[in-house]
Amino acid sequence: MQYTLFMDKYPTHHVDLLKTETACTSVDEIIAFFSAKVEADPRAGLIAEFDHYAHTRALPDGEIAPNIRAAKHLVFCFGIKLPNPLAMAPRPRSIGVCELDDRFTIAFLEAPNPAMNTTMQEWVKELEGFTPGSA
Questions:
Q1: How far apart are CA 35 and CA 48, in angstroms?
Q2: 73 and which of 61, 69, 94, 111 could share a cystine (Cβ 3.0–4.6 Å)?
Q3: 107 touches 12 (CB < 8 A)
């Protein structure tokens, strides 16, 4: 897993997972994997799945890099504390999954709570040994 400042300001964690390193064959299978993780975690609540590729493709001036084959977000929230109204700003969380010819790229913004970052990183690491249908 790599850490970068996307656009020099957004703390982002991401990994390129070669298709040969996972039994998952589609963005939908990876989204289903993460959805099961969210639903199994009592600290998390599932909100939605968003097809970023379809949305952008439907826009008259939408642009998609030619190497992106599919792109979806799983939107969820870790709702363990609500100490003040400003805590709403960095929520909810999302994990983005893009399919390219030879790999999947999984990315998410750093969460304000380090334990939630660790949880999401662990979920991503589990993909290497995951077989769809075994969740």
A1: 9
A2: 94
A3: yes
Please work out, in degrees rounded to the nearest 5, the angle formed at the alpha carbon of residue 11 by the alpha carbons of 6 and 15: 75
Q: Which domains does the chain possess?
A: 2-129 (3.30.310)
The structure tokens 């109204």 sit at 85
Whole-Å CA distances, 112 to 4, 12, 81, 101, 117: 16, 12, 11, 33, 8
- Cis preceding-peptide flag for 85 (omega within 30 of 0): no
- 83 by Cβ neighbours in 10 Å (0-12 / 13-18 / 19+) ranks as exposed
pTM: 0.92
62-120 pLDDT, tens digit each? 999 999 999 999 999 998 889 999 989 889 999 999 999 999 999 999 998 899 999 99
